[in-house]
Amino acid sequence: MNYYFLGIGGIGMSAIARYLHQRGDTVSGYDRTPSPLTHQLEEEGIAVHYVDDPSLIPSHIDLVIYTPAVPTDTAEYQYLLKLGVPMEKRSQMLGELTRGKRCIAVAGTHGKTSTSSMIAHLLSQSELGCSAFLGGIAKNFNSNVVVDNESDYVVVEADEYDRSFLRLHPYCAVITATDADHLDIYGTHDNLIEAFHQFAAQIDPEGTLIIKQGLTLQPHHHDDDHHDEDHHHGQQIEGVGAHILNYTAHGIEADFYPWNVRHYNGNIFFDLRTPKGVFYDLELPESSLYNVENAVAAAAVAVSLGLNEYQLRHGLKTYAGVKRRFDYRIKRPDLVYIDDYAHHPQEIAACLDSIRYLYPGKRVVGIFQPHLYSRTRDFADEFAQVLSTLDELIMLPIYPAREKPILGVTSSMVLRKIDSMSKYLCTPDQVLELVPALCPDVVVTMGAGDIDRLVPRLEEVFKENND
Length: 467
Known about the structure:
The chain is α/β, with parallel strands linked by helices. The protein is 33% helix and 24% strand. The radius of gyration is 22 Å and the shape is globular. It starts with a strand and ends with a helix.
C-alpha cells in the first residue's frame, strides 16, 4: 500500500507513519515546517517535503491520512480532494489498526502520554509484549511507536480532541481526567463528559475500565445521586458493561492507591495497595509527584492483565519517561532545568507542585508559552492564578496552532491578571538573555507549541555560564 500523510510531522501522525513504514508499506508526506521529528522520519526512509505544492505528491496513492490540524484550504488537501483519492482522518486509521487486537486505550484530558508509555514499557518487559501508538517520544523506545508483530496487545493514546477516541473499541481503557478542555470543539463541559461516557460504553464487556476515583461520567446537570454512582468504590456506571476498577493518588478507598510516598535525590518511592496485596518500595527514577498517579493507573492495567509484582517493580524502576514530560534537561547542584508539555492550568499546577515537592525553598523561574487563542481566552483566570505561584514568570506570545487570532486575547492579557512585579513578556531570543540574570535554582519551560525549539538553546546558555 502507498500512504500519503498531510501533517506527517504531528506526534500522532508520525507514529502511524512509522508503524506502516516498519511493516513494509510505502509512506511519504507533507508538513508545514521541518522539525527534529520530521528529520528522524527522513532518516528512517520516509520521504517528507515542506512546501504546499501538489506537484510534489507521489503519482500513485492508495490512501491519504490527514490531521484536522491541516487547514482544509491547503493546496494539497484541495488537490487530493478533487482527485478523489480515498482520505481518512488519523483517528479513523488508528481505529482500523487496532481492530481485532486487544486494544489498551488511555483517555483523559491530562496524563495520557505518560500513562500509555508506562503501560507500553511494562508490557514490553513482560511475556505479553505490545505494539503502541504514543503521543510523545518514550525514552525507553526512543520513539512514539512500538511494533511487536507477535503480540495481540496494542497500547494507544485515546485523544478526546475532535472526538477522535470514539473511533476506538478497547479491550481495556483508562480514564485519567475529564477537566474542561477543547471547548472550541465541545462547546460545554457537559458535552465533553458525555463523550467520555460514550467512550467508556464502547469498551469490550469482557474487558476492564480503570478510572480515576472521583471522576463522573454523568453531565453536571444530573442529580448528585447520579454522580455518586459513577465513582464510588465497587459501583457500576450506567451503560458500561466492562468490569470497573478505580485508582487514586490521594485516599485509601480505591482498588489501587499509593501510600508512604517519599523522595530521595529526585527519585520517588511509594508503596502500592492492590487487590492482590501491597507492593512495597516501588521506585520511579527522576520522576515527578504527578507521575505517581500515572504509575498507579499503569500498574492497575498491568496487574489486571496478569503481571506479577517483580515485573511491575522492574518495569517502573527502568521506566525512563517521555521527552517533554517532566523531562530533566540539566541536573546540577546549582541548577535544575526541567522541560514539560503542560499547557492546561491543571497540568501546570501538577508540574509546579512536583517541583515544589522535590525542591522545597528553591527559587523557581517558569517560562510558559500559551497554546491556542481559544484555550487562553477560556482559562485566562486559571492560568493567571497558577502561574502567579512562580518566583519569576516569563511568558512567550501565544502559539496559534490551527487558530486565527482572537481580538484582545494575548499573553499580555494573562500577565495583567497577575499581581506581581516578577513577570515578563519576551521573545525566545530575549529569554536566553533574561533567564541567567534572574539567578534561578530551578528553571521550567512549559507549553505545547514550538517552545521545544527553545529548550536546546537554553541548555547551551546554561552550559556556557557553567564553564
